[in-house]
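can u pls check wat happens w/ sodium ion
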Amino acid sequence: HDCEARLRHALERGEFLLHYQPKADAMTGRVTGVEALLRWHPAGEAMIGPDRFIPILEETGLIVPVGAWVLREACRQMAAWQLDGMPPISLAVNLSARQFRDAALIDTIAQTLEETGVDPRRLEIELTESMLIDDSDSVQAVLVRLGAMGVRVAIDDFGTGQSSLRYLKRFNVDTLKIDRSFVKDTPDDPEDTAITAAVIALGHGLGLTLVAEGVENQAQVDFLRAKGCDEIQGYLLSRPLDARAFAAWMAACH
Ligand code: G
Ligand code: G
Ligand code: MN
Ligand code: NA
């Protein structure tokens, strides 16, 4: 339909942009990294969030070139920030299942890192559980190659997918991001509080880094700290900001 036709030209027209949302060490508040989040700004219209157009990019396969652009743009921006003297932080990029199955993925990542000079150990790829549930050798091969490059792997929205704990044992994952639907009503809701505490304990038992998403208030922070959660992300720290606003926020607060 119309939206699809316009998305086909959005890359060449320069209508995509990235917003950046930081995460911080739960104990010290120090910013540890930033997550790149895709936005579409069609000429003469309001900016559109990913929930409304990423499904179309996935259906059409456009997510592969657009995803490659996201990776390159985010790495280019990181390199520019480093030159400007921003303290070194990590960069998280979200990947779709379609990209993850693309045979060229590893080459695209390796080439982008080389071109931009970003340290592979500062790049974190965010995957969702559904991408790992098919526990095939090809999934394993991609994760092994990412690991060999030094690129980190995070499981996004942990606990909301078709969860199987088996993949945590089989695959080398570095980080679990606890979905904000669980974090939201901690520490008041007993079920969400129990789930969040158990996921932190589970992840730590496996030697993983735990990130709580959607942290909006101090009561949540106090609870997460008490449970030993490593990092927090959410509106309390900052909303996603455009590149310029994020750099200003970093300079002012950190
Ligand atoms: O801000 P927010 O509305 O930015 O993001 C909504 C959803 O879109 C999140 O689940 C996020 O993981 C996903 N998303 C944001 N940017 C990208 C991207 O560049 N690629 C993919 N595949 N998903 C993204
Ligand atoms: O699935 P992913 O985690 O990549 O999605 C990020 C999405 O979560 C973005 O749409 C972002 O705007 C949203 N988000 C980030 N922090 C918060 C928060 O503290 N509260 C709420 N309600 N949404 C958040
Ligand atoms: Mn994410
Ligand atoms: Na998430």
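The chain is about 45% helix and 20% strand.
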